């Protein structure tokens, strides 16, 4: 039997997952709110059609009658997407939210879907998706999490159903993000300060001596580039971390600061790229590309 999946969101994750699912014989329908954008919509719709996906004209058209609907939007749009999909959903369908949001936001998504009678599953993507694609490790939670893992893992996915309740997978993901996104922000500032003072080789040597199991030169080379490309989305994720922390009675100040650093660095990189599109930004903020 051919699996049928609807994707809400045609960004990095949606595009990559759609391509690889289609290669596995999955019938994929996609919708993104940017499909309606006068400047970008036509090109995005054409990209989706070229992959072999069915292009829906709205949320309802994407969702109606699909066994599995997956929301792959941005953290700040997760609840809105669920509300827009809910009227077209019905019992017997499953809605998956894979967005990097707090357990309370996952609960808010579930509440938005509750009147429809649809089953809800949370996914937490636990590594960058660019290289593994659908084989990226995913933690899943909810009563139907294990059943869908059993259906999708044979297609090449790596879904681990970790809980019957909502919140465990998302909390695990966001606690990890404190470390990963925090390190990315640290590397952004290390690149700038170390270059300014001419001490990067000495700092990297010291870090390697203290933590020899980590390739600090590679980390420094890669992480600022990730922030330049994905900083806005990751800032939204870190604000979800701040929500999670505050709801636990803890300070969200560090998470908020990490969010601001990602956001400002990405904005400076985008501005520099727009000014000089042929010259990719350097990890160092010594160039005008990364004045924040």
UniProtKB/TrEMBL annotation:
Give one GO term, molecular function aspect: NADP binding
Name the InterPro entries for this protein. Answer: 6-PGluconate_DH-like_C_sf (IPR008927), 6PGD_dom2 (IPR013328), 6PGDH_NADP-bd (IPR006115), HIBADH-related (IPR015815), HIBADH-related_NP60_sf (IPR051265), NAD(P)-bd_dom_sf (IPR036291), Pgluconate_DH_NAD-bd_C (IPR015814)
Question: Which residue ranges does the record assign to the Phosphogluconate dehydrogenase NAD-binding putative C-terminal domain?
Answer: 196-263
The annotated active site, in chain numbering, is: 173
Q: Which UniProt keywords apply?
A: Oxidoreductase
Q: The 6-phosphogluconate dehydrogenase NADP-binding domain covers which part of the protein? A: 4-129
Listed name of the protein: 6-phosphogluconate dehydrogenase
């Amino acid at each position: 039997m051919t699996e049928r999946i609807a994707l809400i969101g045609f960004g990095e994750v949606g595009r990559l997952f759609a391509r690889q699912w289609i290669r596995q014989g999955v019938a994929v329908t996609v919708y993104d709110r940017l499909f309606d954008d006068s400047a970008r919509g036509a090109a995005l719709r054409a990209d989706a059609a070229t992959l072999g996906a069915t292009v829906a004209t709205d949320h309802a058209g994407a969702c109606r009658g699909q066994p599995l609907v997956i929301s792959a939007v941005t953290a700040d749009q997760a609840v809105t997407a669920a509300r827009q999909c809910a009227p077209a959903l019905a019992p017997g369908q499953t809605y998956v939210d894979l967005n990097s949001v707090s357990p309370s936001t996952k609960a808010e998504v579930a509440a938005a879907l509750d009147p429809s009678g649809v089953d809800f599953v949370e996914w937490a993507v636990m590594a960058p998706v660019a290289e593994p694609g659908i084989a990226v490790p995913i933690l899943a939670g909810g009563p139907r999490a294990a059943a869908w893992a059993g259906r999708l893992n044979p297609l090449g996915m790596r879904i681990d159903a970790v809980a019957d309740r909502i919140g465990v997978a998302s909390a695990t993901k966001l606690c990890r993000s404190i470390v990963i996104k925090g390190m990315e922000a640290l590397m952004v500032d290390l690149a700038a300060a170390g270059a300014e003072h001419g001490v990067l080789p000495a700092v990297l040597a010291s870090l390697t001596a203290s933590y020899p199991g980590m390739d600090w030169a590679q980390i420094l080379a890669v992480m600022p580039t990730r922030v330049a490309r994905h900083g806005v989305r990751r800032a939204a994720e870190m604000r979800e971390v701040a929500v999670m922390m505050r709801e636990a009675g803890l300070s969200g100040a560090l998470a908020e600061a990490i969010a601001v650093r990602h956001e400002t660095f990405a904005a400076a990189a985008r501005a520099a790229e727009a000014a000089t599109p042929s010259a990719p930004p350097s990890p160092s903020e010594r160039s005008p590309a990364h004045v924040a």
